[in-house]
Every structure is written in C-alpha cells, then in structure tokens.
C-alpha cells in the first residue's frame, strides 16, 4: 500500500491546498504537524533547499512547493481531475495560479502589514489584481467551471484567510458591490463540504495574525 | 489544417530563449516577432494584458504567457516528438521544482549584483555562487540536468549562459573559477544545434546591457 505523509502546520494556507486535493480525490494520508520555530530533522532532510511546509512524502520520496505538489497529485491519482485536459486550458489554469501566488497574495499581504498612506496605496494595487481575478469567474461557479479545480484550490486562501486579515485591519478588500462574482465564489468554495471541514480554527487564526500585524506595524512610525 | 504559431519575444530575453529552444527542439515552424519593449505593440498588449511582457506564444490565435508555462504547453501539444519533461510523475515534479528554483533565485540575484555597490554587491555575488553551487550539486555527474538527454531544467537555465560575460564584467566575478561544472554543462548544451542557434552572442548581450545601464543610470 502506498505510504503518504503530509508535513504541514495547523495554519499554513499552502498546505491546505494539498489537504483539499487529497481529500477531493479520496486519498488516505498521515499528517505530521511541524513547529516552524523548531523544524524536525525529517523536514530539513525532505526539503533542504527551502526548509518549508508543505512537504508531501510519497513512498519515501519528497514533493515540495504546493502548486507542484498539486500537479503531482493530479498526475498520480486520476480521479476527480484538478486540471483540465485541454493544453490551452491547462496553461490558462497554471497562469492564474501563478498570478495568484506572485501578485495577488503579495499585494493583499502588503495591505495586511502596512498602515496609513502605505496601506491605502497597497489597497489600490490589491484591488486591481483582484479585479483581474474577478473577471475570470464570468459565467462560472468555480474557476474550474462547475466543479472545484486547480485554480480554486490555489485561490482558496481568499475564501478564509482574507476575511481574517480584513477583520484585523478593519479593511474590506472584497466587497459585494465591487466584486460580486468573487464574493459568490467565496461562499460556494468556503461552504463546499470537503473544503469546510478543514478550515483552521478562526479564533486561533485571528490571534496569530493579530500578533503578526503588531510586529509589522510597530516597525514603522504611524503615517 | 496548418498550425499558426507566433512568438512575441525580445532577442536578449532568457525567458524568450527558453521558448525558442523548445520550439526548435520540437521542430515547430513559427513566426518570430521582436518587440520594442519601450514601445510595445498593440498585439502584445492584447495578448498579454495582465503583465504586458514577453514571451507570448500565440497558437492559432490563442495566447499562452509565462515562459515555463509556454514550454509545458508546447510539450503537451506536440507530444508526439522529443519530450521535454519526463513521463514519470515524480521525475516531472522534480524537473518542475528545479526550473522553478531557477526562476525564484537567479533573476533576483542578478538584479542585486547589477544594481548595487559595495557590501550589498559583495553579498549578491556570494549569493550568486551559492545558488549556482546548489545547481551544480543537482547536476552531479549527469551530462544534463535531465539525465542523459537535454530537458526542461536544462532549457530553463541555459539561456542565462548567454548573459555570463555581462554578469562577469558588471559583477566583477569569475563564474568558471567558482562553478566549473556549470560552465562545462553549458558548453555541452551549446553543442546542440537548437541551443547554439538560439543563444545570442555573449558580447552582444553585454553591449545591450551596457546600453541599458547607461540610459537608466545603473551601477
């Protein structure tokens, strides 16, 4: 029988992508929770380059980088495909997942860690990026169409973590008026059974990120 | 029906070179359009409205953007010949990881070396060698990163070789002295016609970089 282990932390949204992918495909696996302030020797052995989670270990062989892990899972277990079959649609899916990580996540994170005028500027950039994403949902329930797929999992953090950050900052990035399709996608995605059952406890997330924001905002003089 | 393939590119771009090599490996005929990046064509802006960058592959009118995504697309569409990625899912993941490593690390450190001075520049140079030594470790004793044959990771990295003279001159470093295996690997790749015909001359790249630095006042 295949041996599958997932190294993760309780909160990282990147590991959640892997959890969702495995659960959607009905694949059994063991979970190892890491304390990133005291990384296990196994983690360092399996991911010597980045020393990060998530790491998926399949029959002793490590896979790292969440989006690459998702592609591996999709190629190894063919049920409930995450990526479309058509090469052009696959390229489009990969493009949006990359855009999500390279641009959207970074710009939203900048809103979270800044304040005053810097934050206002960060909000403009983040909403510009979210606008591109919003248009991808035109005529679709999920980015993948009728069912959850690769791009939905890539943007999963928008359906949960974003609202935690918004609450802490007192900023609304995705409001129903400006982003009606994204707002609806958030409801659909967050409420899907496989997704819902794996959200980390919200109160713990608030505590964690509240503390992080305090660290970032105390580094600067208020503007 | 004949395929219509157009590549929007810019001759010194390492990212564009990856696509050119992939197309050459697969023997695909295409129309090459060199963009003036200070005066981007309406076609480029239409085909890549989000990033407005090259390379963009336009296949039968549909655009594909981001060099590694384009290369994977080419591999999947023209799958009947010369595979660029391995067949085994674990080996594919491994190849994608290393191509992604190149993307995450190399450009950033090149920017650091070419735009900073003094201590920061020295730190950049150390980081550059660290990154390339990690790559040497991954290469090991294999002829190519792909093993016996030139593959996805080789294709992702080899375009940087055309920038080595520029990097060495501007960065004041000696890549062959510190990373002889990488330079030996690069020269081996250059024995392939597809690579040799694609990579521009190192001095030509250096002249272009110097021109840009003079214009925009770097270093």
Automatic annotation (TrEMBL), chain A:
GO terms for biological process: glutathione metabolic process. It comes from the Eukaryota. Its EC number is 2.5.1.18. It is an enzyme of class 2 (transferase). Coiled coil: none annotated. Pfam families: GST_C (PF00043), GST_N (PF02798). The lineage of its organism: Eukaryota, Viridiplantae, Streptophyta, Embryophyta, Tracheophyta. Transmembrane segments: none annotated. Belongs to the GST superfamily. InterPro entries: Glutathione-S-Trfase_C-like, Glutathione-S-Trfase_C_sf, Glutathione_S-Trfase, Glutathione_S-Trfase_N, GST_C, GST_C_Tau, Omega/Tau-like, Thioredoxin-like_sf. Keywords: Transferase. This is glutathione transferase. SUPFAM superfamilies: GST C-terminal domain-like, Thioredoxin-like.
Automatic annotation (TrEMBL), chain B:
Residues 3-82 form the GST N-terminal domain. Its EC number is 2.5.1.18. GO terms for biological process: glutathione metabolic process. Its main location: cytoplasm. SUPFAM superfamilies: GST C-terminal domain-like, Thioredoxin-like. GO terms for molecular function: glutathione transferase activity. GO terms for cellular component: cytosol. It is found in: Cytoplasm, Cytosol. Gene3D superfamilies: 1.20.1050.10, Glutaredoxin. The keyword Transmembrane does not apply. It catalyses: RX + glutathione = an S-substituted glutathione + a halide anion + H(+). PROSITE patterns: GST_CTER (PS50405), GST_NTER (PS50404). Residues 88-216 form the GST C-terminal domain. Keywords: Cytoplasm, Transferase. Is involved in the conjugation of reduced glutathione to a wide number of exogenous and endogenous hydrophobic electrophiles. Belongs to the GST superfamily. This is Glutathione S-transferase. It comes from Castanea mollissima. The lineage of its organism: Eukaryota, Viridiplantae, Streptophyta, Embryophyta, Tracheophyta.
